[in-house]
Each structure stands twice: as structure tokens, then as C-alpha cells.
Design a protein that fits this description.
14 strands; 35% helix
């Protein structure tokens, strides 16, 4: 048998998984077995839930007595001990398309309370829109003494990749073990799935939006809004995994405090405008990435607001932006907003590259900010693949970030310049003639060294003078195709496992 056909041995094999129950048990055991070994990964995963540092013990299918003396077996249990104190959480796991149920989660909350445990941690492919928001609405009275946390499999894989690839694991054996966990969870048979479905209500809701018959009271609208929030969170996780930097959904304080208010606002937007929108925040970028999916027009629009430079002529401010959009598509639209103006002046990037004055309604206008927008075709299918809504959104976000957002740096004022020595003194009528060497004593030298320098007025010329051309009319950008990004997403899904020795190093024994 040729070596290229041999199957390498894996620490956590995917072969032999016979059904959903075994898939769930194996995923639980694989994850919990890694936690006591790779401490950096464990801290990144559990610290947000209040877990302390200490000795870690993990168990699966622990028999525990419920209130009526019947025995129940949670999928797992994690106990961290530090000195005389311990932190214990029950673990409930779902894989594949199985969702968490309210009754089961509440029963585990009761068991945790009866046994004096601190928390219940649920794991499934359901993605919370933000930290601290659980996908299952439970009786709040059961949370008085026991905390309830949730993490999706996508978040677990993202945390593992961040630790393994970007932050690093010092011990080579631990690095290899974490890589094996990543390989397992990224395999389709593990049951740890990406976000792949907009739900059963997607098609009827989309049709109702087109017909204008959707109402805020429709339960199907609430389901689509929930799926949209999950899609945004999944897009943030994908970016986070690739960038090695935390990406979050930007929420207002009101939305963070009351998730129901956000859901109601999104539902109202879907009913009245036929759009779904959200904002992603990537650290150290020039602005938040705004995403809008218009189901009526079939367009996905990605935008970012950029503050204009605080000095320089208007044409110079436009050129400052255009120089940073070297990789952007010609069909990207730029809106220029001036001080106290009610409307913007728009132009396609291709036209602005040829003539910056396209964005100037007046040569002396005080530009304050720009909005850079790219519109692309929106998919309609509920699943994944060519023509799907999910992949069209992911491709648009990835393509926009790569060609537009990551290349823009915020404007920084020029540092104050020290003037050349002597100019200010001469202008003030102070004699700057150098004394003969024999007449200069130590005090004179010290006084001379402490004198202030001259300011110098440098007449920096600015290129590309604004012309007297008439301002252009508002332009609607043509659609941009993100085919390269969509092909990458399809290859990522079809690959199953990363190639050996390409992503992860072998252990050094």
C-alpha cells in the first residue's frame, strides 16, 4: 500500500462515530480532556465565566440526584480548586443541528443548586449575539444562586485557533494536543458545525417582505431576526480567527442591558424597511463596519465612516483618503459630508481617482467625514453554497475588510515642529553674534543653550488643486462581486481538515 493512501493516527479520531449520541459524547470528552492540559486555552475559554485559576478536574456523565431522588447524568462537569475553595460547573452539550431545550437547561440549574455548584455551562451550535446573552430563555428565578453561561462550538474553535496560532502555546506537546482538538472540531463528523442555516422561516419571511405582508407579530419574523444576529456573531468569529484580534458586534448600552429591545428594533426594521442590519467592531480600525441586507432590492451594503483630516484644503483631504484605497474596487461609492450640510456629495471611486473635485460642492467647503460603501448581490437560499444568503454576507464582509477597511489609517495631526535656531531672536532684534572664544564663560554657554528656538513658517505646497468643476450628482454604486471570497469560503468548508504541517507544527519530543 502506498504511503500517500495511509490514514495518519489521530489523538481524537473522527472515524467510528455511529450516531448523534456518540458524536455528542466524544465531543464532550475531547474538549474536557484538553482543559486540564492546555491551561492557556482553558483560561481564555472559562475566565469570562468567572472561573478562577487552579487545579482542574473534568468528568463526563456524572450521576447526580435530582429533587425527586431520580438520577440524572449531565454531559460533563468541570471543577477548579484553589486552596480551600472550588468552582464547579455542570456542562450540557449539543452537537449537529440539535438545539438546547428550556426544560433540560432548567433541570440542570436545579441540580446545580441542590449540589451547591456555581454554574451551568451549555455548549451547542447556537450562537449568542453577544456575551452574556443565552440562546434559551429560562426562568430568571433559577439564576439567583446558579449562573448560566453559553458558548458555541464556533467560539470554542475560534478560542483554540487564537491561542494556538496567534498567541502561542509555549509547551510543544500542549501545542500539538490543542492542534489535535482543532482538527477534530473542524471535521464535519464531529458535530461542531459552522453557522449554515437561516432556519425554516427564512423563505416565507423573505417572500412576505417582498409582498409587503410581513407583520411584527409574526413569530417567523422573530426567528429570522434571531438567526441574523447569530450570523453576525459567526462573521465576527471568522474575522477574529483570521485576524487574531477580538471582533465584536457593536451594541448600544440599551441593547446590552435589554436584548429584547434589540430584537424588537430589528423586527421593526425588517417589517418597515425590509432590511436587516448590524455593526461589527474590529480593534484598531478606522471605524465600525456597518452591514445592511436589503431583502427587497437583493443588495448587501457594507459601509464605514471615516473622519476627514482636520487641516489642509478640501482637495487634499479627498486625496488623503483616495491614496489609502489603492486595493478598493472602482465601484466603491464615497460620500463626502461637510460641516453643517444636510446632504452629502457622492461619487464612485473611479471618478474620484480621476478628479477629486467630484466630491466638492465648493472649493472651500469644510469636509468633516467620508462614508465608504460597497454594494454586492445578496443570495436568497437559506443554507450555504452558491447563491446562499449566508455565504453572500460572509463574502461581502471579508472582501470589504480586505480591500477597503484594513488599508485605512486614521488621520493624525502633524507633530509640533521645533523652529530653526536664531530666526525668532533675530526677528525680535536680539544680537545673535557669536562672541570670541575668550569672552564666553560657562554661564554664557548655559544661557545660550537654554534660549528658545525660532518658529519657521514652511510653505508646503499641496498637490492636486481643486478645479472649478460642478459637483457631481449622487451616484449609486454598481454591484461588486466577491467571488474570490466566496470561493475561499467554499474551499474552507469542503476541506474538512487543514493540511498536515501547513497550519500546525508537529511536537518536538
Amino acid at each position: 500500500m502506498a504511503e500517500e493512501t495511509w490514514q495518519p493516527a489521530r489523538l481524537i479520531p473522527t472515524s467510528g462515530i455511529s450516531g448523534p449520541d456518540e458524536q455528542e459524547t466524544r465531543a464532550t470528552s475531547a474538549l474536557l480532556a484538553v482543559l486540564p492540559i492546555v491551561r492557556d486555552f482553558t483560561a481564555a475559554l472559562l475566565r469570562p465565566f468567572g472561573a478562577p485559576s487552579g487545579a482542574i478536574e473534568t468528568f463526563i456523565e456524572v450521576p447526580l440526584l435530582h429533587g425527586d431522588r431520580r438520577t440524572i447524568r449531565p454531559d460533563g462537569l468541570i471543577q477548579i480548586t484553589r486552596g480551600a475553595k472550588s468552582w464547579t460547573t455542570l456542562v450540557e452539550v449539543k452537537t449537529g443541528n440539535n438545539d438546547l431545550s428550556r426544560d433540560q437547561v432548567e433541570s440542570y440549574l436545579d441540580v446545580a443548586k441542590d449540589n451547591g455548584f456555581d454554574a451551568v455551562l451549555t455548549i451547542s451550535n447556537q450562537i449568542s449575539p453577544a456575551a452574556g446573552i443565552h440562546p434559551v430563555d429560562v426562568d430568571k428565578r433559577k439564576l439567583r444562586k446558579v449562573a448560566l453561561h453559553h458558548v458555541s462550538w464556533a467560539e470554542i474553535v475560534s478560542a483554540a485557533v487564537l491561542q494556538r496560532v496567534h498567541r502561542g502555546v509555549a509547551d510543544p506537546e500542549q501545542a500539538w494536543i490543542l492542534a489535535e482538538l482543532i482538527r477534530y472540531l473542524e471535521h464535519p463528523r464531529s458535530g461542531a458545525l459552522d453557522f449554515t442555516d437561516m432556519g425554516g422561516s427564512w423563505v416565507p419571511v423573505r417572500e412576505s417582505v417582498l409582498a409587503g405582508t410581513l407583520r411584527a407579530s409574526d413569530k417567523s419574523a422573530a426567528e429570522v431576526v434571531s438567526r441574523w444576529d447569530q450570523l453576525l456573531r459567526f462573521a465576527a468569529l471568522r474575522l477574529e480567527r483570521d485576524l487574531g484580534s477580538g471582533v465584536q458586534i457593536a451594541l448600544s448600552r440599551k441593547e446590552q442591558a435589554d436584548p429584547a429591545a434589540r430584537a424588537a428594533a430589528l423586527t421593526s426594521e425588517l417589517v418597515t424597511k425590509g432590511t436587516l442590519s448590524g455593526t461589527l467592531r474590529v480593534p484598531n480600525t478606522v471605524g465600525d463596519l456597518m452591514v445592511t441586507a436589503d431583502l427587497r432590492t437583493g443588495r448587501c451594503t457594507i459601509e464605514v465612516d471615516v473622519a476627514a483630516p482636520g487641516d489642509g484644503r478640501p482637495v487634499t483631504r479627498v486625496n488623503w483618503l483616495v491614496r489609502q484605497l489603492a486595493d478598493a474596487n472602482d465601484a466603491v461609492r464615497i460620500d463626502a459630508y461637510s460641516h453643517m450640510a444636510r446632504t452629502s456629495v457622492s461619487g464612485l471611486l473611479k471618478a474620484v481617482r480621476d478628479d477629486p473635485a467630484v466630491l466638492l460642492s465648493d472649493p472651500k467647503v469644510d469636509l468633516r467625514r467620508f462614508r465608504i460603501a460597497a454594494a454586492s448581490q445578496l443570495g436568497t437560499k437559506r443554507g450555504v453554497g452558491r447563491g446562499s444568503f449566508i455565504d453572500s454576507i460572509l463574502a461581502a464582509i471579508d472582501g470589504y475588510y480586505q480591500t477597503v477597511l484594513q488599508g485605512i489609517r486614521p488621520w493624525v495631526p502633524k507633530a509640533p515642529q521645533l523652529p530653526k535656531a536664531g530666526a525668532a531672536l533675530a526677528a525680535a532684534g536680539i544680537d545673535t553674534t557669536v562672541l570670541p572664544a575668550e569672552r564666553i564663560d560657562t554661564d554664557d554657554m548655559r544661557e545660550e543653550s537654554n534660549r528658545p528656538h525660532d518658529p519657521e513658517r514652511s510653505s508646503a505646497t499641496e498637490a492636486d488643486e481643486p478645479s472649478d468643476a460642478e459637483p457631481s450628482e449622487d451616484a449609486h454604486a454598481p454591484l461588486i462581486s466577491w467571488e474570490e471570497q466566496q470561493d475561499g469560503i467554499r474551499e474552507e468548508r469542503s476541506a474538512g481538515l487543514p493540511a498536515d504541517d501547513d497550519t500546525f507544527d508537529s511536537p518536538t519530543l
